[in-house]
Structures are given as structure tokens and as C-alpha cells.
Input
Amino acid sequence: MPKEKNSGESKERRAENRGDKYRVFLPIILISFLFLFSVYLLLCPGCGGGREPVVPGLQNTTNTTENQTGIRNITIYEFSDFKCPYCAAADGYGSLINRFKSEMPSWEPPLKKIREEYGDSIRIEYKHFIVHPSAQKAAEAAECARDQGSFWEMYDIMFKNQQHLKVADLESYALQIGLNTTLFNSCLESGEKKAVVDADIELGKKLGVTGTPTFFIGGLEGWKIVGAQPYSKFEGKIDLAFQGVRPPKPVAPIASFSGLEYDKGICTEDGKPIIRLFTASWCPHCNWVGGAFDSVVREYMEQGKIVAYHWEADTGDNTLTPERENSVPASERAIFKEFNPRGSVPTFVFGCKYYRIGTMYERQNDLESEKRDFRAVIDALVNQTSSG
Output
């Protein structure tokens, strides 16, 4: 009998020990659950987070400078002002750099980094855009120095001494960088370079420049970046310029779809517009809208009007075919990234011209409105390809 009592006491103690362990781990489990649920809300547009879920590996993180078009050199046009502190920071000069780095430790002066990374394969063409009236003579001084083959030497010394750009200062800098000061002083005093500066300003206005610095990557109709943005903002645009890709022009939206027109025009296969949807099997918003998309595009496919793909990015399957695919082709993934660099789903790309990220009528549970918008865009593309 004593053994049974001791045995019972031992079980009770073991039960209490287990209970103590559960009490220790229960708060950890609850905290973990709340954390995971918060992440889900952040990624879930239909649950109050306002953001679409992201497919891992499909964010646009390209950092290649491989030239697939044979382009060996590109030009970056820089509209700038020698008194502008942000312009100075963009090339590694001035006190603003310390502020930028304190706010973003990874910040690097873009122009300085571009020269280091790309060397002679990128030509930087400086254009004047006077924001500070006191920079007028500095701009003219740079052009006078250009006549003697020393534009960039004058550029450097003026940005290093931004607070000292009076005529006497400029003449002193000309001496320091070894110019023929007689020619330089005569050029500066005559004002003969004002017309050059004014022409740059007018060009900038025509291109929509309103402040400095403003950059056009890959030509005057190239990719536009405004401000002393970090080097990382330039990398992707430089890659596109080397690939010969020009920035798209916005076109009028159709229904809930935005429009962008690329040089390559509407994507077609056998003369039919290509309609794409990118989803993921685990995405609730994709599951909500995917069937509506499939039913609409099948109607048009049966009529021989379009080619369509519904790619599940995580499984690699095209849900519109009876076969079970296991990978999304690289060319299709590239289109996904082109229209949605974040890689979130669902993403609709119709004809490489109209696109939408996310659902539009899910909160109202209105699939008929989704179908209506799909048909409106598809009808427009069918008409555009048949008339073209």
C-alpha cells in the first residue's frame, strides 16, 4: 500500500510539473501566434493591412549590367545647379551627405558610385538648370572652362566650394586648375555663355524638369529620377537602359486597370493579345478572384480571340491547361517583375499594356464587377490588335 501511495504522489507531482511547463510555454505560444497573425494582416489587403501578399523570390532585385542588345554605352543627363546642395551631394560633395547617411546608412552618392562602377561605359552629360540666381555666373564659368577642355575640373572645384561662387572666386578657380586665365576671364566677363545656359534651361522645361537635380538615364527620353536619390535607385534603371528598354508612356486607364505603353507594343501570340494572371496557391485573394478570371478568359480563348495564362507562382502551374506544369517560364516571370517589382499577388497583366495589382471588388464580394472589368480590357485589346 505505501508503494501505491508513493506512486500516486509521484504521478501528481509529474502532472504538476507538466502543468508548470505548460504555464511557462503558453505565453510564448500566444505571443508567437499574435506575431504571425499580425504579419498576415500586414500582407492581407482584405484584412485591413492594405498590401498584397508577396511571392518569395519574385521581387525585382536585379543587379545585372549584362548587355543583351549590344549597347555598350549610355548617357545620363544631369540637370543641375552649382548652388544646389542636393546636386553637390549627388556627386559626393557637401554636408548633406552626413545627414543622408544618418537617415539611411546605405546611402551612397549616385554619380560618384556610377563613375566607380561603370567607368567609361556611362557618359554623364551636364545640363544647366538654374534654381538659385546666384548660380548663373558659375554655370557660365563651367562653359568657359569647357572651351579649354576643363569642364569637369571646374565642376569639381565649384561643388567643393559652393558657398564661394562670386566672379572673383571663379577667376581664382580658373587659375588653380591651370586654365589660360586671360581667355577664361574674357569669356566670363563677356557673358557669351549665357545663351548656352539659357538653352539648357529651356530644354529642361520642355522635359518637365522643375527642380534639381533631375536625371534622365539612357537619353533625354530615358528613365527619370528626381533628387539626390541613393545609388540603389539608379541601378535598375541603368540596367534597363543598357538593355535598350525605354520608359513606358502612361495611357488612359480602362475600368480598374492602369495603362502603360511600351515601345514593344501589345504582347501577342499568333496575333492575339496575351492575357496573364499571376497568383499563388496559398493566397486567399487569388483564390477568390482566380476562378472568375479563368471563366472569362476561357470564353475568349474558345472564340479564338486571345491567348491566356494563369500562373501559380509557387507551384509553377498554369491553371488554364489540363496538364500540371511545375515551373513558370523565365520570360513569364520577367513580365511579372516588370509590372510588379514587389512580386505581390494577384497581379494582372493584360497585353503588356494594362495591369492591376490586387483585387478590386473583394470587400464587396462582387465577382461580377471583376468579370466586367476583365471583359472591358480584353475587348479593348482585341480591337486594338485587330485594327493595328
